[in-house]
Amino acid sequence: MIIGELSILLIALVVLILRYLSCRTNASSTPTVRNEGKPIAIILTASVGGGHEAIGQAVRAELERNGYTVHVEDGLRLMGDLINWIMVGSYARMLRHMRWSRKSLGSLMWDVTFKLTAFGWSARLIRLLVGVFFSRRLLPVIEESKPSIVISTYPLVTAALGYLRRTGKLEVPVVAVIPDYGVHALWVSPYADMHLVTSEQSARLVESAGGKAWVVRMPVDPSFDNLPPKSIARTKLGIPQAAFVALVVGGAWGIGDIRGAAEHAAAAGAFTIVVTGKNVGLKKHLEACLGNTPNIKILGWTDNMPDLMAASDCLIQNAGGVTCLEALHVGLPIIMYNPVPGHGEMNVRVMEQAGAVCCARTPQELTNLLTEVMSGQRSLHTPIPSSLTPSVVDAVDSTIARPARATVGVSNATDWLRRVGYGIIAASVFLWLSLTPTGLVLASRALKLPVVGYHAPKGRVSIGVRVSDPLTARAIEQAAWNTDGCITIFADDKAAIGLYPSRKVQFGVSEPSYQGRLHSPFSERRHAALIAHEIQDHTGEYPHYFLPAGSPNITELIEMPKHTHLATWHKTGRHFPDKGLIIVDARGLSPSEAVHHLHSTMDAIRLRGLTCTAINGL
């Protein structure tokens, strides 16, 4: 969720302009009053993954059993198509396709961003931006329901509701339901009336972030209340009766090292059931790699989790969430394996402190743990939630019964100044992300932009040679005849004259340096298009790549010609890069010097055992 939230900052400036052009100066919502008759609750969820909706439906069932009238709405969708698209669309695609290796760029960024947004100032900024730009859209559906209480199961919805409470636009109490044991600061709103959590450790995290917490028995879907006996469930599912069964789950989106967990569990001798959720690509990948393994059964999205848990001896997970609550509810032991960076690692740490899970952070630890359990040397213990712990209904009843909390209204002048301040902050963040490689990385992953080089697998490189002289360009092209197509020549308009048709070399546009002259992205785009046609005239091939003059950033997407891909590179300095596009800068070099520089780079690649490939292979 965290990288998706940073994407909100990218569009905040645009939203600010559109929002306040359409809003009246005196636009203040009619306060929602408490319902004095039969208690009514409105639950606001989000279709981000499956857990937020699942816990919302479980809370709904428990409240309805206790006499509440309950309305469930997709709060994130109500907040606007833009924020819903960011969190559900681009964010979902990013997670499903992210390489979860601890050394991968994606997982490293995920972990760093998760930790950065845990600071008080960054969490407050994101909560306030969400409140200013998106919170008012929730008011109409709340006012129509006339609820006694509003319940949120999604952090950004909680942030929006907290803002409405803070500014006096919402007078009914707000309760946030947090099913994860680990609680990130961004999931807490100091202005929500209560946060319902799973453990004392979770409550302390809420309180340290400025919120109020109540430890409750988290409800699960009623289908988990009466599981069939293990033998019946195994017969129904076609699972060997005598086997030790490990259930491997990565949530609705199938994230994390699912393949590694399945391989090592099966290697230890467990009959392994893998649930890939809605990640169709992962299911196909596992079927191709592990489909012929006799003790591995691969499933996609399923509504049959109660029977799967009844048939299993342990759950192997990597992040926590509602699946773990369901396992705890039915008494299925949980093994947390190789937790995903960020929220997964925090969740596992807190669950381990609470005594709710066993941890296996490496393949060897997982293999050893399962081997010891299957041989009887060790047992897996799972705590059953105490019946003495208050229920969600107890907490909701108590919150409604409390005297109405005084809200702090914000004057029009103060509100206007604050919003202008937020707009300036958002514009600053927007500018920073637009002009740095960080923004380009986020945008390319979330939106699948035409960018090559950043996401290359480790050990695979390609060579790009930047030239500005026609003689040097021709010498490089001649030298590239014996390189198996791993060289791309990036030429400007002057160097293009020296090029000629070749099947051994790929061509790209080198953006001329704009030092000493006014830089306009649109004029640079026109200039780059002219260079592209110049290259085509001399090589017979339209160039497919564009190499920016400086550090790559989002503005380069405006400057690159049509039908080209933005090339990002790694500089050869003290540490020779082990992946991606390596640039040999031959500008200002004689033809012989440029060729020597190219050969030295190729020698360095061979010496390090790297694979040199064409740029389209990165």
UniProtKB/TrEMBL annotation:
Return the protein name.
Monogalactosyldiacylglycerol synthase
Matching InterPro entries, A to Z?
Diacylglyc_glucosyltr_N, Glyco_trans_28_C, Glycosyltransf_28_UgtP
Residues forming the Diacylglycerol glucosyltransferase N-terminal domain are 52-208
Pinpoint the Glycosyl transferase family 28 C-terminal domain residues. Answer: 248-376
Where this protein primarily resides, as one coarse class? membrane
What top-level branch of life does the organism fall under? Bacteria
Q: Which organism is it from?
A: Thermobaculum terrenum (strain ATCC BAA-798 / CCMEE 7001 / YNP1)
Q: Which GO terms describe its biological process?
A: glycolipid biosynthetic process
- According to its UniProt record, which protein family does this protein belong to? Belongs to the glycosyltransferase 28 family.
A GO-annotated cellular component: membrane
Give UniProt keywords alphabetically: Glycosyltransferase, Transferase
Q: Which Gene3D superfamilies match?
A: Glycogen Phosphorylase B (3.40.50.2000)
Name its cellular compartments: Membrane
| Pfam families associated with the record | Glyco_tran_28_C (PF04101), MGDG_synth (PF06925)
A GO molecular function for this record?
hexosyltransferase activity
